[in-house]
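Self-study notes.
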Amino acid sequence: MSEWAVIHRVRYPPFDDKRIKADAAPIAETIVKSNLDDDQVLKCLPPYKIQSDQGWLIERVITNQEGADLEKMTVLRVDERPFVELINQQRRGWYILPNNLHRYARSMISAAVIFLLSTLVYLFLEPLLSEIGIPSFGTKSIQIGLLDYPILSIIVVPVIMLPIGLRLVANFVDLKRQQDFFQSPVEQPKIEFSPSIISGQPLKGTIEIPNQLPDWKSMSVHWQVGTLPPSRSALIDISNSTHNSQPPVGLSTPLPHHWEAGLDDGTAGGEDAPMERQDIQGGVFLRPMRFSEEGGKSKINDDGSFEIEPPTNLWPGTVNSDLHRIHWEFILKIKRKKQMPLLWVCPVRVEFPDEIIHLQNLEIKDPRTEQLYIGQR
């Protein structure tokens, strides 16, 4: 009789994954269960593999002492462990989408920086160009106060300041929308899903919305699946490091948190959401999942029933562990007349399908909240 072990491997993309070569980063690995006999291994969740073409990886392997991997479906199909706190804090309840100005401002920053650097290079080379007879442009001085500046600065400075100004305006608009929403809170919908929810099959259920506001135009329902960042503490433990010593590759030193630790990917790579109210646990913006895929979209019938098609690819079911967090969620999207859509999010516990999952060459999603796309904004 063979003895089996369940192994979790992960090389999760950090916030700014484009700055890191995935193949050069180590794979974190831990033995979840060991010394299992043939009967015990059938009571474990099945193996799976999720990876991008860059090399980012989430893999569950069931292997024996001879190094042979399990290549058949196991009996256990549902992860009954409680949802991780990250889900309870950041992926449950009411959310709003950030202002579109954030996306426009971020797309302008690169062009503004390139324009600034090009102008500096031109001003540096201008004397040489004048010597060889090439006429200059915008290099004559203009006096502002007691100082002289090239005329080009009158053009460059507004271009540099425009994306910053747009971000400031968008943040103030977002804060006003948050204040307006929480001054008149909406009751939580009542939802009931079909008894058995299996990956690769439609999601069926009924939803009841207690009160609808006058500015609501339309409602639709979606669902999506994706992966959440692994626990920072689990990555540190696997690396044989400590919380007060040098962190593993890709993680930052501990950062202060204004509500609760563990609500980010631990890399401190950048701003994942615009300005949020600090008195709301987990924030009011729904964060994108790095590996993710949307399922279908459905209108709500008169009796409150709905049926949503599954994602195109076949995904594993729900997994709630320190390293692996495969998350399914139901999203009610409410389009409003004068404001951005309103989202109500509910986690869904999904069973594994009847085959082993191997997802390859998945696209890594941008971690910034303003890049989140749920149906049509």
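Second protein, same conventions, sequence then structure:
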Amino acid sequence: MEETTDLLQHLIRNECVNDGTPSSGHEVRSVDTLASYLQAPGVEIKRYEPQPGRGSLVLRIEGTDPKAPSLHFMGHTDVVPVTRSGWRHDPFGAELIDGEVWGRGAVDMLDVTASMAVAVRHLLTSGFRPKGTFIYSAVADEEALGTYGAQWLTENAWNDVKSDYLVTEFGGARFPMGKGAKLPIMTAEKGSQWTRLRVKGTPGHGSMPFKSDNALVKASEIITRVARYKAPLHLQELWRSFVEGIDLGTVERMALTNPTAFDVALERAPEAAQPMFYAATRTTFSPNIAHSGVKVNVIPDSAEVDIDIRTLPGDDPDAVRKMLRDAIGDLWKDVEVVHEGSNPASSSPLGTPLWDTLTSVTKRLIPDSTTVPFLIVGATDARFFRRKGVVSYGYGLMSEKIPFGQFAKMFHGNDERVDQETLRLMSDLWEQTARAFVG
């Protein structure tokens, strides 16, 4: 626990903030930290820097049996920007306060990256010689689509990172439902179709707004309509498997898998789980950025709105465009779609040997636990590997100290922190999983 705490603190203090520009991130700082920490005689560690400062690290232990399945633990080292005024403690101070490490990246996902590295070091110092090849990577740029990290590695260094199975972020947070600890293994993730709309108007003098064709005013109405839009409900097989696994009463279970009763059942679910349950069953639309105007006394003739659209499997670009038209209604005639970035949803099968290993190790560490499949509603680097045929899961183990609702809000939010019991659980999880799966 102390070892993982110390390494996590170092990674947080490296301040690898990725604002989406090529010159941000500076992940090479954490590559230096991890390379120094993991260096051991005979260990192969490779570094990659496709853009200055955008470093990734890959450590491989070749297996003794070429036919044995290979396993890859992957973390990322970049973090999103912060608004310092919203934090109670320095977001890059990595202070240990009442058994919790505070700082940007504490749960997304430097805790996983650090605990994986500690597990790897313990394996190395014990003389670990796996039957199947074992890989640990710490990659750049996950928070900005993976261009200089996982995507670059899968396209330019595939032989160094390929494996049969992979684990990355993030599962293992205890759902506040059912009896015992219900721990999600993320077997799939939503896609994205980030869209920019240009709203058209007519310029004029700001002193005469009566009956003006103000693009900003129309954009505000469009934003409101999109934010209120409720996409069609999709209770897919993965959702049904999840509901079956969390040990609910018959009435509640039936309601959450019945389209006519679902919305009422959602309102009755624990408040902390509602946003995630909603996102797991619908394509979502979140208008998050808007720009308009050139001068305060000029009525704007255009405005741009960026919408974060997260898609379920089956909702292709044409279906998403139709949803947008439905949401915007009669104002669609004033809208031009200037950008659509399509990134399809991805999934891996359940019931694999890795699923079985993660489940059995978890039961040893948390005896009353049940692992359940779930859909991660954001995006992770797993998608690049799934597209290459790698069975990829998101996992981790959270203690009971931080409630589910608080935990979910810390991703990209204020006062991000992780408790030391979680760090202990994760370090043990990764070490025992590696030994059981490839050892």
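Instructor comment on the second fold: The two ends are 23 Å apart (CA to CA).
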